[in-house]
């Protein structure tokens, strides 16, 4: 049997390490599609253009929004594209996302030997989103306004993988945005109904 030289052995080890790195980097990356409301009947306003304003901040203590591969705020900004239509009067709509936060708080877990055999809920995720819709005349004078807010929370177990954790947070985010849609529609029907074309 032919023995490898030190240089030959180094080459084999380096090749194996590169192959392992390639295998790790080629793992499929989860794709989280934007939440949409295209399947719902649009709300038609007697108004002209729609202005969108991103007015939220991700500076809360415990914020994890910037660490996630999807954005609650950006998806909330898409709401008027799917849900609102206008009939071209001189009035205008302004839609603002005023809050879009996802924060994480650590929970107490079992310590010691018992903790090794216990799958605790180790993290609590809090999600909040808020939006405002204003109707203004051609001079910028407000004729009506609605505000809506939705919140959800869920706990995550310490045994979850990174992918399972992200999927759980994404599912909660999607449900939260549907809550926001329902509240916006309810507020619009109650407070801006006179500007809607039936």
Give descriptors for this structure.
four-stranded mixed sheet, disordered N terminus, alpha/beta, two-stranded parallel ribbon, 198 residues
Describe what this molecule looks like in 3D:
It is a single chain. With 198 residues, the chain is of the alpha/beta class. It has helices spanning 6-25, 72-77, 79-83, 112-116, 162-191, and strands at residues 43-45, 50-54, 84-86, 92-106, 121-136, 142-157. The chain has a 4-stranded mixed sheet with strand order 2-4-5-6. Strand 5 and strand 6 (142-157) form a beta hairpin.
Summarize the topology.
Elements (H helix, E strand, L loop, with lengths): L5 H20 L17 E3 L4 E5 L17 H6 L1 H5 E3 L5 E15 L5 H5 L4 E16 L5 E16 L4 H30 L7
Parallel strand pairs: 1-3, 2-4
Antiparallel strand pairs: 4-5, 5-6
Distance between the termini: 87 Å
Uncertain spans: 1-27
Work out the oligomeric state of the chains in this entry: single chain
Task: Tell me, rounded to a whole number, the average pLDDT.
Answer: 86
Radius of gyration: 25 Å
Q: Tell me about the biggest sheet?
A: 4 strands, mixed
Compute the number of helices. Answer: 5
- Give me the strand/helix succession: HEEHHEEHEEH
The portion of residues forming beta strands comes to 25-35%
Shape: elongated
Structural class: alpha/beta
Q: What is the tally of beta strands?
A: 6
Helix content: 25-40%
Give the strand order, joined by hyphens, for the main sheet.
2-4-5-6
């Amino acid at each position: 049997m032919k023995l490898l030289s030190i240089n030959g052995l180094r080459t084999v080890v380096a090749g194996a390490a590169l192959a392992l790195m390639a295998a790790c980097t080629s793992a499929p990356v989860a794709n989280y599609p934007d939440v949409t409301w295209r399947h719902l009947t649009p709300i038609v306003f007697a108004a002209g253009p729609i202005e969108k304003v991103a007015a939220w901040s991700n500076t809360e203590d415990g914020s994890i929004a910037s660490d996630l591969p999807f954005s609650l705020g950006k998806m909330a900004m898409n709401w008027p594209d799917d849900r609102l239509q206008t009939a071209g009067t001189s009035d205008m709509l302004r839609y603002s996302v005023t809050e879009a936060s996802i924060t994480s708080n650590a929970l107490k877990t079992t310590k010691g030997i018992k903790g090794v055999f216990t799958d605790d809920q180790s993290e609590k995720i809090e999600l909040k989103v808020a939006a405002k819709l204003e109707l203004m005349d051609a001079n910028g004078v407000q004729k009506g306004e609605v505000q809506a807010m939705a919140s959800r929370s869920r706990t995550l177990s310490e045994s979850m993988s990174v992918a399972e954790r992200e999927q759980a947070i994404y599912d909660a985010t999607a449900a939260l945005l549907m809550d926001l849609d329902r509240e916006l529609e309810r507020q619009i029907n109650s407070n801006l109904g006179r500007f809607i074309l039936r």
